[in-house]
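Researcher: We're teaching a course module on how sequence relates to structure. For the next exercise, students receive a sequence and then see the predicted structure as tokens, so they can try to spot secondary structure elements on their own. Here is the exercise chain.
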Amino acid sequence: MSITTEQLSATTLLRFATAGSVDDGKSTLVGRLLHDSKSVLTDQLEAVTQASLGRGQEAPDLALLTDGLRAEREQGITIDVAYRYFATPRRRFILADTPGHVQYTRNMVTGASTAELAVVLVDARNGVVEQTRRHAAVAALLRVPHVVLAVNKMDLVEYAEPVFASIAEEFTAYAASLGVPEITAIPISALAGDNVVEPSAHMDWYGGPTVLEHLETVPVSHDLTACHARFPVQYVIRPQSAEHPDYRGYAGQIAAGVFRVGETVSVLPSGRTTTIEGIDALGESVDVAWAPQSVTIRLADDIDVSRGDLIAPASDTPATTQDVEATVCHVADRPLTVGQRVLIKHTTRTVKAIVKDIPSRLTLDDLSQHPAPGQLVANDIGRVVVRTAEPLALDSYADSRRTGSFLLIDPADGTTLSAGMAGASFAAVTDGAPDEDTSAEDAEWDF
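Model: And here is the predicted structure for the students to work with:
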């Protein structure tokens, strides 16, 4: 079925990620989803067919549609995050096929960080395993609002309803304890195509939606008026030309919410207050603008505003702080240690900082806290306290995934060390270690 431009413009966009243990069938599910929804080009399918024949397989291995790295095809596992775009008449999709291996947990965090839905696969023969729980915990930690449990390989357990019911009950109880707001369980066979795009003829006991039906109908909230309005300044525009001798505008992308001409706003971290005199979008003046539009905002007063400042409604400003308490996922091979000098990048602002404390490291297997680990290594998730050289206007990650997130960067070479989420972690986890400062002051970066 062909999709017109008018249909695409009228549909909503859903970002979702796949997760699960190794060999649970994530790439096969994605391949089946693309193939059965007619989202695979003919030459792509021919290339996969030839590659499959070369490996001695009679039928096309649909997992090859996403596993593009040579190492992935040789080992039959996903290593890096594979992004794919496809569309149906009802909705557009950006999917991230994430790795299942424990050592690639950081890649799963990357893929799920912007997702509105996570599909967690479980092999019906093995049930809920350690990596299943780990990925459910990461999805909860990243505040992914919708989680789908896809119990895969039902064909290998003779499509038995009790097997599905047992796995669904165990996973739902675990995910609910983490605070996941919505969990939908679907029995599937990605290899055979059961309940992926078309309903299965082998599971008449299941009356729920297929995976694609659920993806097309799950509610995606775009009520931007309910969001905290935030505008990180990216660039100051001063043409100083004969045509625009006094023009001063602040350009950037609206991170969240809505801004209107005449609205009283504050510029952070200075806290100075003014009003919005005008908003320019695509070369034209507009009265209102909303996320994620890129605009230029003109202010009524000539106050000091530069890159990295945050414009927000005067009645709804985030608190500014130099002591950032957050949960981080460490993504670098080199460890993160107490006392380490870092740069913290929050929206368009980058400032110097010191890791003052690492109160605890989260053990995702049983959600226990390991107190005072001293350092975080690759794939670790833990609580940190960071002291910054300049105030930051941070929202809680629970309130805003965009303005509540940040990166810790190595100032020596620019390597990304950790991805951070400000505020509390998921509700089921409480820190077992105190948040007091136990590190010595750094003489050169004494904030």
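Model: If you want an answer key for the exercise: Helices lie at 5-10, 26-36, 42-54, 70-75, 105-112, 130-141, 161-177, 211-217. The first strand starts at residue 12 and ends at 20.
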